[in-house]
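User: We ran a pulldown and think these components assemble together. Before we commit to crystallization trials, I'd like a predicted model of the whole complex to look at. Sequences follow.
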Amino acid sequence: MNNEELLIQQACEGNQAAYRALYDANVKALYRFLRQYSLDSHQVEEWVQRAFIKAFHHLASFRGTSRFSTWLFTLALNEMRMDFRSRQHTETLSVESVYDESYHGEEPVGEFEWQEIMNVWLAQVSDTKRAVFILHEVEGYSHAEIAQILGIRESASRTTLTRTRQFLQQQWNEHYSGE
Amino acid sequence: MKPEDFYPASQTPNDAQRERMWGVIQASLPGTEQRHQPERSLFAILDRRSFIYGMAASIILCLALYGGYAAAQQLLYAGKPVEVRVDAAYQKAIREFEKVIPDMERIVVQQHTKQPDRIAPSFIGQTAVSPTTEQLVARKEQMGMLDGEIAQLRSELRSGDLSPVKQAKLRHLYKMKLQVLQEMIDAGEIDL
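Assistant: Here's a predicted model for the assembly, 371 residues in total across the polymer chains.
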């Protein structure tokens, strides 16, 4: 039994310290991932809280066939989608909201600018493409795990990632091929 | 790509945010002891409640079944021909009579041990005197014959033969049996 399984078992028995440890291990990744879908930090906090609360109440049904974080991301995305559906609109990031006006695309690309450029380009793709790209390239999830989190097929996750990469390459070429 | 390279610092929760979120989460979590205790007591309450409901339901069901059975029996009885109902009334009367009269067999034995040779008149209107064993044996035989004839006629009637002659005969036998029982009581042949 690994550490995560042990913590889950203890949390199942009502041990809050164990659940706090699970929270500490996952909250950062979950929050920053969800932050890609809303500019409102309070909204993101609410999704995170709801996901953790739901996870706690359903810990007994967690079979451990996947990582706890995979299951947690699935719950959080469900909460988020539910909100979006109920509001009938999405507050996902638009190009304008991410775009820093000080950036004009002609400056040399440093580390700080790179983050902004990526955010600008990723804001132009669909939610699914953005999620697949971030989960795979940034958070390091496998396609099988991404398929579980997003409720898509593994092959769809692979195709989506390839297309997103192509799009980002194209953007890169358009803006920086001359350098 | 490292997460730190991708996410700006503003998109990562700081300590205050993390604590705030945990505070909300923790408030929604039941405590270790509080988590199990209420569940157990809730289970006990539910268990006790369902037991009471179950008992109440079974009592109601029993009463309803008994009511239904009684009503059905009443309906069946009301639907029967008058002859059958008269027969049933006689039967019931005899049964009730016999219930309060001690067993003939026992009376004969008792009487025999008490007064083996005594001869006593037994007729209506005279002071009751204890009967002899022979008288009681004769009564027993008389009752046995009546019972035998009644049983035979009843079995014939039960098989569907409801001829008026047989019905009249049965009624007569019933009357005779009731009369014999009454005579025995009046003459003091049996101790009540």
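Chain A touches chain B through 32 residues (CB under 8 Å). That may be worth checking against your pulldown data before setting up trials.

User: Thanks, that helps.
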